[in-house]
Amino acid sequence: MVDTMSTPAAPNLFQLRRLARKQGYLIVKSPEADSGAEEQALYVLVIPDFAGKGTDPSGASAAEAAFAHGAGMTLEEISAELTRGG
To answer: Does 86 or 36 have the greater pLDDT score?
Structure first.
């Protein structure tokens, strides 16, 4: 028999995206990631830009810059960041 209470569930991307939206962030997946490997992909948290010229409501520019500089987090790290101080 498996003890499900002692095994934490992996973060769910859908739930994390919803939590991020509530906090004013977007989660963007690395374009280098395999489309079927959510748990192995890298992600970044970005703040969408809705103000002024050059708006970026999808966060694509910020995410592109972050990935170009080697940034990226796993879903577990995203979860920890969103729930820190919670």
So the answer is: 36
Strand partners, 13: none
Tokens, residue 71? 């940034």
Can you give the residue ranges of every domain in the chain? 13-83
Whole-number Cα distances in Å, 3 to 10, 11, 12: 15, 18, 20
Is there a contact between 57 and 25 (Cβ–Cβ < 8 Å)? no
SS3 of the chain: helix, strand, coil, percent, to 5 = 35, 15, 50
Entry pTM: 0.72
